Amino acid sequence: MQTNEELKELVRQKYSEIALQDKTDNAASCCGSGCCSIETANIMTDDYTSLEGYNPDADLGLGCGLPTQFAKIKKGDVVVDLGSGAGNDAFVARAETGETGKVIGIDFTPAMIEKARTNAEKLGYHNVVFRQGDIEKMPLSANIADVIVSNCVLNLVPNKDAVIKEIHRVLKPGAHFSISDIVLEGHLPPAIQEAAEMYAGCVSGAIQKQVYLELIESNGFTNIIIQKEKIINIPNDILAAYLSAEEIAQFRNSNTGIYSITVYAEKPKEQTACCAPGCCN
User: Fold this and answer.
1) Mind listing the pLDDT tens digit for each residue in 193-213?
2) 273 domain residue, yes or no
3) Count of the separate structural domains present in the chain
């Protein structure tokens, strides 16, 4: 089993490669992992093209949902995009928050940061910035964000609890997040669970759906809602790289489900201190 640092380096290397290849190659893969399939050209991604702010140069086909569509972003909001890649969700968020707001994208892959900044410059966006950093320890002050979005990224992070704690720290009291991610119900075959490509491809790093939701709740979030859910079907030609025909059949007949979910949750507002006798009655 690889260490957390080894897993991070695996993701950094893979997504550096992805930043330098075109969307056609990415879309024909398992979340851009390179485990290419001839059965489908689009395993996880949703269609962004109808959303205001969409920019094809920033869409590398790496997401598993449309969190910005559900994020309830208002004019003037400060929005943080975790794992911002080439800037796709950041630019859609910018269309919602407008000139008076600000969007901050965070990604720990230098090639992605460079690509996103180039895209922002081409578009002339001065209120969209990209910072290199680890979302387990964000390069941001506490209580600054009105909304946090993320698209198919937490499954790539070994310490998901640390990320959720950071989300809670960075959000303003009363603010919220909308995050799309891959989760499981049931268990993956060991060969899939241990495959480095399937980790970089957003599958083997996924955790149980119930555990995912419990992590959010245990870190102090409220009003937790699954805004969207869809099943992810990994094609047989991808599975065949790791499983025999018999093992694929067993996996298909098991109760294991791989899902993309978009989850909304709120950081509670700060409680007003009770300063006088009887004020809390």
Assistant:
1) 888 778 777 788 899 999 999
2) no
3) 1
